[in-house]
Specification:
mainly alpha
Length: 106
């Protein structure tokens, strides 16, 4: 990264990392995960700073990267097999599979 770009990126980080962190906390609900997301987001922005800095709205670009990282993490967790197995056997009398598996219909 050129010195000009580094100074510009550093200024962006100082100005917008707090807002990115608040967004990450809202999306994850956990401070530690939010910190990791912001770090990953800023690392990706740094690698592509020339493109990002030329965008009309670099902060919007950064937020999109952050949201995409959240989606990626959810997809990876789902692919890892964290699904809840369905109960075996016949449902109790007077119930349907929906009423048995969905607490809101009980």
């Amino acid at each position: 990264m050129r010195p000009d770009d580094l100074a510009e990126f550093s200024a962006f980080v100082r100005a917008r990392s707090g807002a990115l962190f608040r967004t990450a906390v809202l999306l994850t609900g956990e401070r530690g995960q939010a910190e990791d997301l912001v770090q990953s987001t800023l690392e990706r922005l740094c690698r592509h700073w020339r493109t990002v800095s030329r965008a009309q709205a670099p902060e919007a670009y950064a937020r999109r990267v952050l949201v995409n990282l959240v989606y990626d993490r959810h997809r990876l967790r789902r692919a890892a097999g964290t699904e809840v197995p369905l109960p075996r056997g016949d449902p109790p009398r007077g119930t349907t599979p929906t009423s048995r598996s969905c607490p809101a219909t009980r």
